[in-house]
Amino acid sequence: MLHTLLQRWRYCILNGMPVAVLLCLALSMPVAAAGRQQITVFAAASLKGAMMAAISEFETQQPDSDIRLSVAASSTLARQIEAGAPADIYASANLLWAEYLAGQGMLVPGWRSDWLGNRLVLIATGGDADVVITVMPHELRADERLIDKLPEGERLAVGDPEHVPVGRYARAALESLGQWDALRPRLAPTADTLATIALVGTGVAPLGIAYGSDALLSDRVRVVAYFPDSSHPPIRYSLGLIDRQDGQQNELAQAFFDFLQTPSAMRIFADHGFRTDAPP
Fold this sequence. Notes:
2 domains, 23% strand, 12 helices, 5-stranded mixed β-sheet, 38% helix, D-Maltodextrin-Binding Protein, domain 2
């Protein structure tokens, strides 16, 4: 326990919060003041809605549990965990970041699962007449030049390909379709898929590339095309239990890790647009 607290203290200081160190330490304790056992889940931004629903279901079944959720880009969360952030479970939208943490000894051996999938979609602002795509959602073809569908001076919103998993998938898909070189100067890089949805939903960008699960839950964008599965690496989400380094694993974290893979939890993720039967 002492090792864990010192690690979290170091995280607070390194992230510019020396004045709030004591508060950070207090909040990082695994048992809440009211007697409810507490854990923190770090999840990819695209998992936010589904993970909140899963947490609600779990807390209903176990009223004494208190699960905190922090969402951001998978890369950002991995770096925070590496720096000692107080997390108990890591849910990544990219297998490579989970493998990176495992290689750093940050994940408990045997407590990792590649358990969800997703689709890559092209989205447009809802009802935007300026975007020249009028057909029903379909699988994007190589001869459909997206550069021709962007109004003059407008950009394609997409997660930053240098740092964000959805951006890497998007780049791979565009390269496969022979469109990356033409579109690269017209990209509007974002921090994550939710930021892409926001840009397109507000009309700042007329088109964007996002995960199908996020597009499904937004009433401000519409899906206009699906990228072929063969155009990019499989989109797989990895779940891992963070190694607390003190030899005392949190039983609540283990229970929630197991719950996320139960049929009831998988139905929640399926309802939020995730693939629960995607090939490995």
